[in-house]
Amino acid sequence: MSSRLLDVRLTFPTSVVVVYSMSLITDDGIFITGVIKACLRQDDYVSSTYRDHVHAISKGVSPRKVMAELFGKKTGVCRGQGGSMHMFDKEFGLLGGYAFIGEGIPVGVGAAFTSAYRRRVLGEEDCDSVAVNFFGDGTCNVGQFYESLNMASLYKLPCIFVVENNKWAIGMSHARATAASAVADTEPWIYKKGNAFGMPGVHVDGMDVLKVREVAMEAVARARRGDGPTLIECETYRFRGHSLADPDELRSPEEKEHYQKRDPIPRMRDYMLKNGLATEDEIKQIEKEVIAEVDDSVEFADESPKPDMSQLLENVFADPKGFGIAPDGRYRYEHPGFTSGTADIS
Ligand SMILES: Cc1ncc(C[n+]2csc(CCOP(=O)(O)OP(=O)(O)O)c2C)c(N)n1
Ligand SMILES: [Mg+2]
Question: Which of 131, 273, 300, 328 is the most exposed place for a label (fewest CB within 10 A)?
């Protein structure tokens, strides 16, 4: 569904005006399904990045709400105020997409702390929700990553760190930007950094949804038991540029081809056919349903109303009453009665 959503987003003309930037979520998002869909409950948390569409849908947010958010519409998951990179939904424990890389990691650790606190301090014995943090290889060179691993391990938090290692941070290759963790290593493995903080680090083929599922299930079970965090490095690749603005000229055709051959969607389809899990017809039917659902989301988003003007400053200041736009269309602070953000004009 993520690939199909992307194609729609790229070709749909009216949407271009509402979202200034859009990170491309392509097949490298497949492993997200292996983690979220396969292992998490609604009361678990997910902290995302700017590639948050699949995280949102996998966690339970309806594709309609995700699409409407992309269109900047009032019916979007953040009422059109978040856009592509800032999906948030309290109901499904989606802690947000973050445009500043690494920002979401401590937020996820905070959610894991909440869960541990409720169980260990408040005595809520059946509270075993976990938090999964997703982020990229480039983000592992940001300070919050290390601070978060430290705190999560120190407090044995129910937290899973999932690195979407697609080998590149925009146009910077991972190998060029990152030091190896061991003297003998010729490649900078991220999973090895878990060891330095006393947590298991696992490398997994991020193009194999079943392997990802297996690793994720173990990490989630470990976290639920109260045995602490795990670092999972999913090796993956993006099949298009970093964003709509990226001409994608730096990655070699050989490298692209190497990963293209490992495209997880046809791989999974072959697996299902070979193992008698589904017939050609059933798979075609699934594809049809996905296309219909995406088309429905587009129609819904396109027909939805734009946010009201009064929303403009909401969630920007702590006191929207004082800072919003009054029914007469004027900024509230223009009212003579306005002093410190508490003018009552309505
Ligand atoms: C704190 C911060 N610094 C720089 C940027 C600019 N920036 C946007 S995306 C990106 C690359 C991130 O790469 P990676 O973590 O590997 O994620 P990917 O896009 O490959 O999924 C950078 C440096 C940013 N968004 N935030
Ligand atoms: Mg990357």
Answer: 328
Task: Answer whether residue 116 shows pLDDT above 90.
Answer: yes
| Ligand 1 pocket residues where CB is under 6 Å | 51, 99-101, 135-139, 164, 166, 168-170, 242
**Minimum-distance ligand to the CA of 99?**
1
Q: Measure 127 CA to ligand 2 centroid, in angstroms.
A: 33
More confident residue, 309 or 142: 142
CB 80 within 8 A of CB 100: no
Least distant ligand from the CA of 51 = 1
**Which domains does the chain carry?**
2-303 (3.40.50.970), 309-346 (no CATH)
pLDDT value at residue 12: 44
The token pair that represents 328 in the structure block: 């007469």
> Which of 84, 161, 170, 239 has most ligand 1 atoms within 8 Å of its beta carbon, as the pocket-test mutant?
170
**Gap from CA of 20 to ligand 1 centroid (Å):** 17
Residue 276 φ/ψ region, left for φ over 0, alpha for ψ in the -120 to 50 degree band, beta for the rest: left
Residues with CB under 5 A from ligand 2 (ion): 136-138, 166, 169
> Residue 4: which pLDDT band, with cuts at 50, 70 and 90?
low
- In the chain, alpha helices (H): 2-11, 30-32, 38-39, 53-59, 63-70, 104-120, 143-154, 174-177, 193-196, 209-225, 253-260, 264-274, 280-303, 320-323
Report which ligand 1 atom has the smallest distance to the Cα of 51.
21
Q: Mean pLDDT across the stretch 1-14?
A: 48
Tell me what pLDDT residue 34 has.
Answer: 73
pLDDT tens by residue, 216-267: 999 999 999 999 999 999 999 999 899 888 899 999 999 999 999 999 989 9
Which residue's alpha carbon is nearest to atom 23 within ligand 1? 169
